[in-house]
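Fold these two proteins, one after the other.
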Amino acid sequence: QVQLVESGGGLVQAGGSLRLSCAASGTTFIMNRMGWYRQAPGKQRELVAQIHSDGTLDYADSAKGRFTISGDDAKNTVLLQMNSLKPEDTAEYYCNAFYRARTTLRYFEVWGQGTLVTVSS
């Protein structure tokens, strides 16, 4: 079973930067993709950015040019560097992972507990 541990949220002024980190722990799994979603109050959870095992990157339009996702396959860690933050980036950010268990070859999806990002104007 995989667990995700997130860190890096906080309060920042508009125009500032934050870096979110997510580490997957567990054994006997093959990571397929990892990424970050966010959910603002009263809104649906949405994809921010994700990285696939083949290195393919996906970004929300709102994140392009400001956010950068990177991963360390050996450590099963994903980082989200967020620059030029705006008040509308304020949300709970959730790490997400989609993986396959080595023993059963079944696919699973897991979520982190969330980390709050608040951008003040």
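Now the second one:
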Amino acid sequence: QVQVAESGGGSVQPGGSLRLSCAASGNIGSIYIMGWYRQAPGKEREMLATISQRGNTNYAGSVKGRFTISRDNAKNTVYLQMNSLQFEDTAVYYCNVKHPWEQRLSYWGQGTQVTVSS
């Protein structure tokens, strides 16, 4: 059993910053890929950023240069630093933890709301 829990969402003005955290617990090892996704109302869930055990990162074009993903393997925790937030960044942000080749071993958090408004 693996539990995934996000924290750090909230409301921010355009141009502001937020830092999301996600802690994974249970039967999980640092080999897992950790990532952040989001889903805005009426839209499909989209990948924002992923990070491997070794720190290799992958970003969606829409957030590259504004968002930074990092992880602490000792704590099984992944972070998402979000800068220069825009109205269109408003969404529910989800953390995902998945095994690199066992596709059935993929776990999601409950999500945390990020709202960008003036």
